[in-house]
Amino acid sequence: MEFNRINIGVIGCGHWGPNHIRIFSHLPGSSVLMCADPDQSRLESVKNSFLNIQTTADHKAIFNNPDIHAVCIAAPTNTHYALAKEALECGKHVLCEKPLAMKPEECHELKDLAERKKKVLMVGHIFLFNAGIVWLKECIGSGELGKIHYAYSTRTNLGPFRYDVNALWDLAPHDISIFNYLFDGSPVNVSARGQKCLGESHEDLAFATLEYPHDILANVHVSWLDPRKVRQITIVGDKKMVVWDDLDNIGPIKLYDKHVEKTKKFYETYGEFQLLSKEGSVMIPKVGASEPLKKQGEYFLSCIAKGIAPEVSDASKGLDVVRTLCAIQTSMEHQGSLIKIS
Ligand SMILES: NC(=O)c1ccc[n+]([C@@H]2O[C@H](COP(=O)([O-])OP(=O)(O)OC[C@H]3O[C@@H](n4cnc5c(N)ncnc54)[C@H](O)[C@@H]3O)[C@@H](O)[C@H]2O)c1
């Protein structure tokens, strides 16, 4: 089907929804016709910034509007599955914020429904559109790091706190989607601990260890109870090591020409270690500046216009992330037991 301009409805106008409204209002291929939120104050604030957008307290008005081709779901996580299902059933293309749903079987159902209805279903795994993360993917693919030994991510801040999901479900979808993308697969097992510091219902932090194929171990630390805002990933290969820091103004990537020579007889003294460790320069590559949310929006529109299923951040990738989140949650509830993921 050919579209001159793709009309979008945005569902959820809290903290994040207005960013989608801004992007789809400014992209040349789309217009935002309507947005929905049961909270009147959110709608007022959208009306003040975007004069031509119709607002509604009932998301069904968007689903029933025949002029709207696609919806963007930026409502709380525990509403994603029901809203995405209803949208697809009403014949809309869907860009759903992360995570796609809260159970693997819900993701399967949404994926099948989108295929049956021939609609694009994409998940807002925004970091797959981040120039620094794309650079990391190319760096790993080129073999520059050598064989990857392990990786770890830190995603912390003081707040914002959520009431529908814990810090794992809120924050870790980003890191899991990044590691799945970088390591071309999903974890085979996980083990994790979390803690409920501020209340009795939700974990405010989690430390999860994910084992990927090819002996790659990845650790994810997420927390909304931390003194510092950190967005970092470190990847250690047997040739080079790299650190991504999304908040570094000089450049998000630092490539360290460092490694340790492996010998048949490994070191026994510090002196021997010094001879084996190789320390070179640190390189800060130019990765270019682009807004990931804009790139994600452009990709969603191009999939609709071309009538193709998204390869980046499709429902299968959303399912992999949800399956991993469920396994981590189970492990947390069993004091860190190893949970296999089939
Ligand atoms: N990709 C990212 O970097 C990123 C960043 C922030 C949030 N998010 C995701 O975006 C979603 C929203 O997060 P937020 O921070 O904006 O939360 P929020 O609580 O600030 O806003 C959610 C809004 O949805 C509204 N809402 C609830 N039920 C609704 C319904 N049935 N129809 C329409 N609106 C409804 C609420 O009234 C609220 O205004 C979450 O899934 C979150 O994971 C993604």
Layout: helices, strands, pairs:
Elements (H helix, E strand, L loop, with lengths): L5 E6 L5 H10 L3 E7 L3 H10 L4 E3 L3 H4 L6 E4 L6 H10 L3 E5 L6 H14 L3 E4 L6 H12 L5 E11 L8 H16 L6 E7 L9 E8 L3 E8 L1 E13 L3 E5 L7 E8 L9 H7 E7 L8 H15 L8 H19 L5 E2 L2
The chain binds nicotinamide-adenine-dinucleotide (NAD).
Quick take:
The protein folds into two domains: 6-126 and 292-297, 3-Layer(aba) Sandwich (Rossmann fold), CATH 3.40.50; 128-291 and 324-340, Dihydrodipicolinate Reductase, domain 2 (2-Layer Sandwich). It contains ten helices and 15 strands.
Structure report:
This protein has 342 residues and is α/β, with parallel strands linked by helices. The chain folds into two domains: 6-126 and 292-297, Rossmann fold; 128-291 and 324-340, Dihydrodipicolinate Reductase, domain 2 (2-Layer Sandwich). Helices cover 34% and strands 29% of the residues. It is built from ten helices and 15 strands. It has helices at 17-26, 40-49, 60-63, 80-89, 104-117, 131-142, 167-182, 270-276, 292-306, 315-333; strands at residues 6-11, 30-36, 54-56, 70-73, 93-97, 121-124, 148-158, 189-195, 205-212, 216-223, 225-237, 241-245, 253-260, 277-283, 339-340. A nine-stranded mixed β-sheet has the order 14-13-12-11-7-10-9-8-15. Strands 3-2-1-4-5-6 form a six-stranded parallel β-sheet, sandwiched between helices. α4 runs parallel beside α5, α5 (104-117) runs antiparallel to α10 and α7 (167-182) crosses α10 (315-333). The longest helix is centred in the last third of the chain and has 19 residues, at 315-333. The model has no long low-confidence stretch (mean pLDDT 95). Bound molecules: nicotinamide-adenine-dinucleotide (NAD). The site of nicotinamide-adenine-dinucleotide (NAD) has 22 residues, from loops.
